Amino acid sequence: MTFYQDRRRYLRAVVALFPLIGCGREQKPQQTTSSSTPRSVDSIQTQISAAAPTSRTGPRLVIDSAAAEPRIDTLDTEFIVRVPLKLAQILEDSFPKFSLFSRSNYASTEVANIDRNEPQKSPLTATAGDFDGDGRRDLAMLGRSSNAVFAFVILLSDDQPRLLILEHQFAPVFDSLSEYISLVKPQTMSGYGGRRKTELKLATDGIQKEIVEKLSLLIYLDHGLVKQLQLSEPD
Length: 235
Description:
alpha+beta
C-alpha cells in the first residue's frame, strides 16, 4: 500500500466522524406556538401583529356559554368569534344557523393587502367594540342565515341583549364579496352629509363599512338610534 493510499483512507475516516461530532453539541430549543392557543382574549383590533399571515381562515362563529361579552380571538391559523349564549339565541331567532362570511369570499389580493397594511381589519366580517357606550363589548357581523339571507347585524350586550338589523336581503350567491367592516374608536371625523362636508365627534366606538374602491361609511349609535356618515367623497 502506497503513502497516498494510506492518506486517502485516513481522510475518509476523519470526514466520517464529522456528523458524530456534531450530534454531541448542545442545540438550543426552538420556540413554537401552538395553533390551538389564542394569542389574545380581547378585541383583535389591538392584538393582531403588523405581520398577520394571509393564511389565516375564518372568522368562525363559536357559541361560548362561559363568555360574558363577545370577543374575537386571533389564533395562528384562524379568527374565532366567540358569542355569549344569550346573544347567540337572539341571533338564531332572527337568522337561523347564521354564519359569518369567510375571508375566502374575498379577492385574495385584497385580503393580502389588508393583512399587510391594515391587519386590524383582517377578520373582514366581524368587529367588536362598545357601540352603545354602556361599557360592554358589542359585536357587529356580516353573514348569512340558512335561507341564504345576507345580513349586517349588531349584537348589543345589554342587561336585556338586543339584535339590531342594519341590512338584510335575499342573495343566494356569495362567491365574491367586496364589502367589509372594521372598528372605529372615538374621535373627531370628517365626512359628508349629502354633498356637504361636515365634522362629527364620535363619542362611542363605531363601525366603518367599506366597499372596495367605491364607498366608505361610518355607522354609529346615537342614543340608541343608528346613524351614518359617508367618509368617502360623493361621486
